[in-house]
Amino acid sequence: MVVRDYISLIHYIDDLEKRGIKVVSLPEILSKLDREVNYEDYDTKKVRDLPRSYVDGKFPGCNESDTKYWEPDNPIIWDWSAGCFTRVIGEMIQGTDIDFITVDFNPLHIERSKVVTQGLSNIEYHVMSSEEFLSSGEGQIDFLYMDTGDMHPIEPTAELHLREAQLIAGCDIMSKNGVILIDDVRNTTPKIVDNEESDYGKAKYSIPFLMKNGFELVMDEYQVVLQKK
Ligand SMILES: C[S@@+](CC[C@H](N)C(=O)[O-])C[C@H]1O[C@@H](n2cnc3c(N)ncnc32)[C@H](O)[C@@H]1O
Fold first, then answer.
1. Ligand 1 atom nearest 84 alpha carbon
2. 167 lines ligand 1 (CB under 6 A)
3. What are the residues whose beta carbons fall under 8 Å from the beta carbon of 76, sequence distance 6 or more?
4. What are the residues whose beta carbons fall under 8 Å from the beta carbon of 93, sequence distance 6 or more?
5. In what order do the strands lie in the sheet with 215-220?
6. What is the pTM of this model?
7. Is the Cβ atom of 205 under 6 angstroms away from ligand 1?
8. What residue's CA is closest to ligand 1, atom 13?
9. Is the CB of 201 under 6 A from ligand 1?
10. Ligand 1, closest atom to CA 145?
11. Atom of ligand 1 nearest to the CA of 149
12. Over the stretch 109-146, which tens digit does the pLDDT of each residue have?
């Protein structure tokens, strides 16, 4: 199912490659897990993410709310580093019965996320903190995309990430074999700007914690994937 739906994203890949961005797709990630994951499981599941910006930082309008900056037919200017996951995953779930829940504590960012996903169905938008959401214990999450916080200063983001990990491990919010994808783990900004020593940056506390508390590391690259044992 996920592989089939990925075909709907192929039209973005040329634009991304022209910008020197390597595409690591959800299906690629899942294919690394195919010993443990039955793709069919993803038909009925819940996915969760957080949204942001209409255009990349080198264009006017980055991180602004004016909808004149949103050009739905011009993906080359979209903010692929900070604002496209919601749209991309939103497209992937169309025609399936996956519920996609997107959470951000900033109401402006949720409004932008509604603009970029206009016309897509099966998406719920919540203005709340990640900790509030993860504490709600509502249902089970099968795929959790963690992307809260900024790269600088890194310490508060790393602490937030640890608190999120503690909430995840402390309740039953992830389903059996559920997958967590952590974005920007090997982003170099913390090393350059904050003299951070850990290669895991924002996830320097959360990854070791999750590995000691029921999760297994299954992909360890710029992004990191863990799976509930
Ligand atoms: C890098 S952006 C996410 C981009 C998104 N993944 C996308 O591709 O559209 C990080 C987001 O985390 C949100 N954020 C930061 N701390 C948060 C928290 N404690 N709870 C909820 N959202 C938070 C910010 O408002 C921001 O929109």
1. 8
2. no
3. 15, 18, 19
4. 5, 47, 100, 122, 123
5. 123-127, 99-104, 46-49, 141-146, 174-182, 224-228, 215-220
6. 0.80
7. no
8. 148
9. no
10. 6
11. 15
12. 899 899 999 999 999 999 999 999 999 876 688 889 99
- Which residue ranges form the domains of the chain, and what is each CATH number? 6-228 (3.40.50.150)
Which residue lies with its CA nearest to atom 14 of ligand 1?
A: 148
Residue with tokens 């949204």: 51
Q: Tokens 């739905």 appear where?
A: 72
Tokens of 172: 């039953």
154: which 2 tokens? 């890194």
Residue 83: CB within 6 Å of ligand 1? yes
> Could you report the per-residue pLDDT of 58-106, keeping only the tens digit for each?
889 888 889 999 998 887 788 877 767 888 888 888 888 888 898 988 8
Residue 130 CA, closest ligand 1 atom number: 20
